[in-house]
Design goal:
The protein is of the alpha+beta class and about 300 residues long. About 20% of the residues lie in helices and about 35% in strands. It has 6 helices and 18 strands. Strand 5 and strand 6 form a beta hairpin. The longest helix has 13 residues.
């Protein structure tokens, strides 16, 4: 109030000189501390970087990594002569993300899934005698050897991904670069019976299709992006948490817009690495994560 009284006195007592004093007084007044600061632009995420997302469901924690269709990162395959940890695979391949891959026999550490890397077959389940000479598996052997696989094609200058059965022909004009077997197919439909995982006639269900468990999967979205998916058990409910395969397929279709999906080796093998952090799927009776070495993985690496 005193400042306003002085300003008025200056105006009426000093004429033009008073106006000059008014402007001087206004410029010298302190700026209010409640003034709204100028907005600061938040950094825009790079659109082609892999994107991690976590979903909390009643019976599972879902960890996903999405690799955009036009990303500068590629989805590749890696195989170890012996089983290795996911962290070791990530370190040796300088990968930004890694998820466990196809099925293998933990006793002889030989693959039960086809693996192709850089156009060459580097793992052949037909060379695993514990698979081919197992009398219990003979009725399903043709189905096992033609299970679903995730593929990376090079079609001219364009990279394409697909999920098809092993004996599917390579599209004209494309070269098969990488492939890793798994199964069953999850989307567009679940093919657990067709791939020899389930036989309703004898009550066979080799991977507990309808049961909750830790799961790993890979999918391709409507726009051609690739999604790595790992469904982890809840530590507070180790014996009754995780996801069944039908539930996993529904989640991937409805929440992730996946149109082609494939199950990977699950249970104790389920694990996902992203940007230096590990997420494990299976937990023991005390709710502690189980860390298991695996034979093959799917990796996400920067393109050369």
């Amino acid at each position: 109030m005193k400042k306003l009284w002085l300003v008025s006195l200056a105006i009426f007592g000093c004429g033009g000189f008073g106006l000059w004093m008014v402007f001087s007084l206004i410029r010298s007044m302190p700026v209010s501390s409640t003034a709204t600061p100028a907005p600061v632009a938040s950094p825009t995420p790079e659109p082609d970087l892999p994107q991690y997302q976590r979903f909390t469901l009643p019976n599972s924690e879902i960890h996903t990594v999405k690799i955009p269709a036009e990303s500068r990162f590629r989805v590749s395959i890696a195989l170890s002569p012996q089983t290795d940890s996911i962290e070791q695979f990530a370190q040796s391949s300088a990968a930004i993300a890694v998820i466990n891959g196809g099925f293998f026999d933990p006793k002889n550490e030989k693959t039960m899934s086809h693996v192709i890397e850089n156009g060459k077959q580097i793992a052949d389940p037909e060379k695993n005698e514990r698979l081919t000479e197992n009398p219990n598996l003979q009725p399903y052997l043709n189905q096992i050897l033609n299970r679903s696989e995730f593929r990376r094609y090079q079609c001219g200058e364009k990279t394409q991904y697909a999920i098809v059965s092993h004996k599917t022909e390579v599209p004209s004009g494309c070269k098969l670069v990488d492939a890793i077997g798994g199964g069953p197919q999850l989307l567009p439909k679940l093919t657990s019976t067709e791939e020899g995982f389930v036989d309703p006639m004898v009550g066979r269900d080799s991977i507990g299709v309808q049961q909750r468990n830790a799961r790993s999967a890979i999918g391709i979205t409507r726009d051609g992006s690739v999604v790595l998916v790992m469904a982890a058990q809840k530590p507070e409910a180790p014996g009754n948490s995780g996801m069944s395969l039908p539930a996993l397929a529904t989640f991937m279709e409805q929440r992730l817009d996946v149109v082609q999906g494939m199950n990977l080796d699950g249970g104790s093998s389920s694990a996902l690495f992203y940007q230096g952090e590990m997420f494990y799927g299976k937990v023991d009776k005390e709710g502690q994560p189980i860390q298991r070495s695996v034979k093959s993985v799917v990796t996400v690496q920067a393109k050369e």
